[in-house]
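SAMPLE LOG
Freezer: B-3
Tube label: C17
Construct: single chain, 95 aa
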Amino acid sequence: MASVEILPSLDRCIESTARDEFRKAVEGYMAAGCRNKDLEERISILKAFLEQSDFAELRTRSEKHLVEGKRVKFMICGRGGSVDCQMMVLGKAQL
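STRUCTURE (predicted):
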């Protein structure tokens, strides 16, 4: 099962970060001549995540930790056209 890691910040919320990652994956796929299975899978997972997620709820869950100076990571796993999203709080960000 493939997964995608998203690291939002106070400057870039989970939705903006996921959209950036999706755009980068599509650009990389096109640059590779549309022949990269890993990027195809990444694009598929991110597309499903962007279409299916409740970003207001994800922002609420993550931002309360981000404002405390903690780092947050989302692991998005693809499962047959749908996605499973797990949030992890990693502790204080290093300056």
